[in-house]
Amino acid sequence: MLDTNSKSLINKETIWIVGDGRSGSTWLLEMINHDNQYRRMFEPFHPIKVEKMKGIEFFKYIRPEHQDETFYQLASEVFTGQFHHPRVTGGDNRVDKKLLIKDIFAHLFIKWVGTHFPQVKKILLMRHPFAIALSKQKLMKWDWMTEPKQFLNQPALYQDYLQPYKKLIIKTNGYFEKQVLIWSIIHYVSLKQLTERDILIVFYEHLCSTPEPELKRIFSYLGKSKEEQMINPKLRDKIEAPSIASREHSAINQGKDLCDVWRKKLSASQIKIGIEILESFGLEGIYNISLMPDRVAAERFLVK
Description:
Blueprint: H1 6-9, E1 14-19, H2 25-32, E2 38-42, H3 69-79, H4 86-89, E3 98-103, H5 110-116, E4 121-126, H6 129-138, H7 155-162, H8 166-171, H9 175-193, E5 200-203, H10 204-209, H11 211-221, H12 233-240, H13 261-265, H14 268-280, H15 295-301
Parallel strand pairs: 1-3, 1-4, 2-3, 4-5
Helix pairs in contact: 2-12, 6-9, 9-14
């Protein structure tokens, strides 16, 4: 059970960013926290780096109404700020400060969190799957999910969403193609579960191309005042600086177009197969051969 302070702590402002690895989630976290208003929590649900989460699947799926007492206890510690871990909190263990949390393996229990922790303000950050797949390929030694067949080991996920895609999951080969498929599954399931009231969808490409209006939209969703929505010098620095998670090969560190790199790196065959995977899930309206995503198509995907 939670300690006696939890009931009051659970009502403080808590923001949760969920984005696939290499989607820009650390950059967005740094922009939102440019004025250091929040206590940061870095990937508390990481199944490899965080000891308490070991044994949990990559992209654990939980039905929204499911009562999982063990996981509920862990999530309660996270969303009340009582969760402590050197990598997650960086030594900042204050429990009275507003929370800003980001995760990269949490897509399949976003709706569950919304059901059990409705006070949490949730942001789903999306980036073109081809760009993400290429970035992960350059960092293959990192802790990514690399085999889509692992999804088939979650019976509830298979029963609820993946049964029609079993053959596709089994036959897909190649690192790039498998990463596109993983991206498709986690976004297909999360979007099919969520409503416009549950979450704010943010696109990495919009943050890159039109950061000011996009950040104002985010700050408005978070309930910031008009003054707090203004682009001040501290925020400008965060917009223009690479995040702490960027690497030497990242487009932002090489002065390249942040949205265009994948086009020059992929073969025509890879692009064709990638588009076919997206089409299998009906996601090609959101991302395709165009550089820019379609927000309307993503919102249309949400449950009404």
